[in-house]
Amino acid sequence: MEELTAWERVKRARSSERPTSIDYISGIFDRFMELHGDRVCRDDGAIVGGIARIEGIMVTVIGEQKGRTLKQNQKRNFGMPYPDGYRKALRLMKQAEKFGRPIICFVDTPGAFCGIEAEERGQGEAIARNLYEMSALKVPVLSIFIGEGGSGGALALAVANEVWMLENATYSILSPEGFASILWKDGKRANEAAGVMKITAEDLKELHIVERVFGESLPQKEEEPDGFAADGWGTMLENGALTADGDDTKQEDTEDEEEEPNVLNRDNMELVAGQLREGILEFLRVYHRKTPTQIVQERYERFRRF
Amino acid sequence: MGEKSKKGDFMADAFAEPQVPDGLFQKCEKCGEIICSEDVVTNYHTCPNCQAYFRVPPRARISMVADKGSFIEWDMGLPVSDPLKFPGYLEKLEHMRQVTGIDEAVLTGAVRIDGMPVAIGVMAASFMMGSMGEIVGEKLTRMIERATRERLPIVIFCSSGGARMQEGIVSLMQMAKTAGALKRHSDAGLYYVSVLTDPTTGGVVASFAMLGDTILAEPGALIGFAGPRVIEQTIGQKLPEGFQRSEFLLEHGFVDKIVKRERMKKTLSFLIEGSGGEKPSLVRTFAAPVPPQEKVEID
Question: H-type helices in B153-260, by residue range?
Fold first, then answer.
């Protein structure tokens, strides 16, 4: 893993270059069909959901979705769901339960949306209902934090049998800005707040909030044309031989040349997506052997122990 | 809602000729272009010029989504009911039967979709605006009950003006009857896809059309409880463009997905594969992994 401060990781988690739920869904699953609507009021663009196939296994996939451009964010609301989004997610999860499909959630939200309409339609109730119903789902649930995990807005998709995080994803009770503002009456001390909040994947793994952390360090494929392909490095990098540490000097060289070439984005996410795919298949194999009662009980105990 | 006799006669006249006469030309009502009828049929009953969606006769609809030759029709020729002794109703029914070649406003039966057995109901707008009276309700309910017994998923293509006025309160009861049967089907862990086509309104919307585990819609279909004209008269306002169309319902959270005709079979197949059997996914799948082939559908 890279040596970064908590605040640097927060910035990575928030970066608009970072792959979104749809990018992971495209990169991991063989086929995905999006389904819409809460059957009450609205289809919330901040949450995407549907049915996917992976190695012939049908699963339900739900993700919080950020936009990259202003236009996309009009639809995605910067990944901040309304109650309608949580109700859509719950509708799809209950259907997954009915038809025995495991559920895979991608979490990436600054938080549930704050606003007049969101309150009128019961933001609190919607999140509470998700926690309540998810605690008893008879199918396995896996939640993967790929970016920001903002508070209740994240937890509403994360009452899972296992919770995984990417190296630079975060999960917290509140944004560091909010935390600093409440405790120290100074939102500008967010940097400092991030340091004490234990919001990084590594910290959360230690606290047993998450089961697995996936590294984001990347092989330097870009360099091959500069002469590295010929001597066999390219192949080794392709094979993932150097992925975890990537400690050769070449990598350090390039860090100064361009701004952060090592940062995870849509173009270089293939390896991470591949690792997640392998992880998901392993998860499905393990949980396939468990009975619904076992699955519910384990999930209950996972949260009971906190 | 159901149509008065004047409108009904008009509908009967409109369908007095076969919809797509062999080897002839017809005029698209949307773009005004003269188009070859054969092209319309091969083009999923859409206008080859402007892509407008024409209403699809029920048997053509079945052939568009079912495996070739797999349709087995159920519950034909149920005895006619005329609870109100409504003047001229029986004659009208008989006339509609001759004109449309089907026995009521819905066909039910079993088909295979990509090899998977499915119970199906297809409504016919050409038959008294697809209105639901006792026989329509009974055919659908028998189909749903049989699907529950035989553990089959259900697909219903809806297209209806609503409850059939000529049968009065008995038509209203069909809403409760079909809804109750679907509840049992669902409680048995079985899957139901409702497909909304133009138009789906009134008592059909307020019962089985909106009860699908998954609700699909064709593009641009009129879908609503009260018809637009009734609403405009009631509230004294002009309705906005696109009100009560499929896209409006999608935005308001009532439709899972809008599906074009040429994609309908593939879409149904994938959905049924994902929800079709009792404990579908994990058990059967580890045995035979399928190589990655298709893409991601986000809309």
Answer: 169-187, 202-205, 228-235, 246-251
B202 Ramachandran zone, left/alpha/beta (phi>0; psi -120 to 50): left
CA A182 to chain centroid: 26
Evaluate whether A276 touches A167 at the Cβ level (below 8 Å).
Answer: no
Q: Please state the pTM of the whole predicted model.
A: 0.79
Q: How far apart are CA B86 and CA B243, in angstroms?
A: 34
Residue B286 exposure: Cα atoms within 13 Å on the Cβ side: 11
Amino acid at A85: G
Report the C-alpha gap between A182 and A192 in whole angstroms: 13
Interface test with B, best of A23, A24, A53, A62 (most B CBs within 10 A): A53
Q: Could you list the beta-strand ranges (E) of chain A.
A: 31-34, 47-54, 57-64, 103-109, 141-149, 162-166, 212-214
Q: Assess: ipTM above 0.85.
A: no
Residues 157 to 216 of B: which have CB under 8 A from any A CB? Answer: 186, 189, 191, 213-215
List chain B pLDDT tens, one digit each, 299 residues.
Answer: 444 444 444 444 444 444 555 558 888 888 888 888 888 888 899 998 888 899 999 999 999 999 999 999 999 999 988 998 999 999 999 999 999 999 999 999 999 999 999 999 999 999 999 999 999 999 999 999 999 999 999 999 999 999 998 998 889 989 989 998 999 999 999 999 999 999 999 999 999 999 999 999 999 999 998 888 888 888 888 989 899 999 999 999 999 999 999 999 999 999 999 986 443 444 444 444 444 455 788 87
